[in-house]
Amino acid sequence: xxxxxxxxxxxxxxxxxALIYLYFTGEGEGAGIxxxxxxxxxxxxxxxxxxxxxxxxxxxxxxxxxxxxxIFTLFLPFLAVYFCALFYSYIRLGRDKISEKISMKxxxxxIVIAVLxxxxxxxxxFGFLAPTVI
Length: 134
Ligand SMILES: [Zn+2]
Description:
The chain has 134 residues and is an all-alpha fold. Helices cover 64% and strands 0% of the residues. α3 runs antiparallel to α4 and α4 (62-68) crosses α5 (70-93). It binds zinc ion.
């Protein structure tokens, strides 16, 4: 149990360090991970703008976060709860008991939504979904 607590605390420490680093980087300083898909194709994927959205959330600028990546911003609270429950399950039981309870239909629905979002944000009529801020 001590090893699991140490592992979880180490993961939490690195996540907190990454968030602090992201918080103190300025707009457009390239703190995020460059998107290979965007660099190669010129199209936006579902994840484009996620690190900028996370930085905006850390600065409590939710409008800007939604403009950078709406799906990431809307899913982030659920992801945070999922990972907290996952860590709790890992510490208590030593295994992932949370993912077993999530339906594969639900997971596939999320994947379909993410793929559709990635397609839509490249269509000019849905340009407001592109990771830009006006
Ligand atoms: Zn991308």
